[in-house]
Amino acid sequence: MLRDEQKLIEYFADAPDDISLSDVNLDNLPSHISVIMDGNGRWATRQGKERGEGHIAGISSLREIITACVRLGIDVLSAYAFSTENWKRPQHEVDLLMHLFATTLLKELPLFHQENVKLVFLGDIEALPEKTREVFEQGLAETAGNTGMVLALAVNYGARAELARAARTLAVRVARGDINIEDINENAVAASLYTAGLPDPELLIRTSGELRLSNYLLWQLAYSEFYVTDTLWPDFDRWELLRGIKAFQGRERRFGGVKA
Ligand code: IPE
Ligand code: IPE
Ligand code: MG
After folding, report:
1. For ligand 1, which residues put their CB under 6 angstroms from it?
2. So what's the pLDDT on residue 36?
3. What pTM value is reported for the model?
4. Which residues in the chain come in under a pLDDT of 70?
5. Counting atoms of ligand 1 from 1, which one is nearest the CA of 43?
6. Cα torsion for 188, 192, 194, 196, to the nearest 10°?
7. Is 86 a catalytic residue?
8. Does residue 187 carry a catalytic annotation?
9. C-alpha of residue 217 to centroid of ligand 2, in Å
């Protein structure tokens, strides 16, 4: 994707000692970066604060990473914000998250326009509380015409639910006679997922040190490179992002083959 070199250099000025823009190859950036934004609760607890304070602090990190990815010219940024399992959390925490999703999105819509960001959702947003769902639908409608980076927010997302849904979709199409059983191949499955039309993530970043996927993008991450950092999400910033990209660029991706 096109990027404004001047704005890019400005955004990554004041680099820390260990990493700077010149450490990454701007001609070999991942086109899709995905983040599991984890560690908000621990960030808050460590500071003697309520977990909710961590979620509020995490919003700034996401804003920074969205801007950083736009500056870098990344095509797709996806972020895991709420899993199908996160409903198990205390009701007040779920309520706060749903409230924050709605109010933050409404507040950030001008930024999305300014940066030409197109919003999409991964997950079952129909099942969200009404206010949140309404704001999400507004966000979808208002950014549908934007032609820059795609921001895919995974909310009420679970990979197993997504795959079961894809199986249902394909079964219905067979039953209706729209397709034959033989037509169910990898492309047909991929086209039935929430991520239909998006490239698979080349780089998956998980914060807070957890070495698991937590039901995230099981299909799409088949050949992604993983970067796990102990940094908690509210402390994650543009420099951490560069460290992740640098690590990615040092990997040898083989896709099951052998080195040429
Ligand atoms: C990630 O932070 C945000 C969501 C899952 C909504 P957590 O809330 O999982 O933070 P930890 O893992 O408890 O520290
Ligand atoms: C994964 O984090 C979900 C999100 C970041 C939204 P969790 O904190 O829910 O995952 P587990 O429970 O540690 O596996
Ligand atoms: Mg967590």
Report:
1. 37-42, 82, 86, 97, 208
2. 99
3. 0.98
4. none
5. 14
6. 40
7. yes
8. no
9. 13
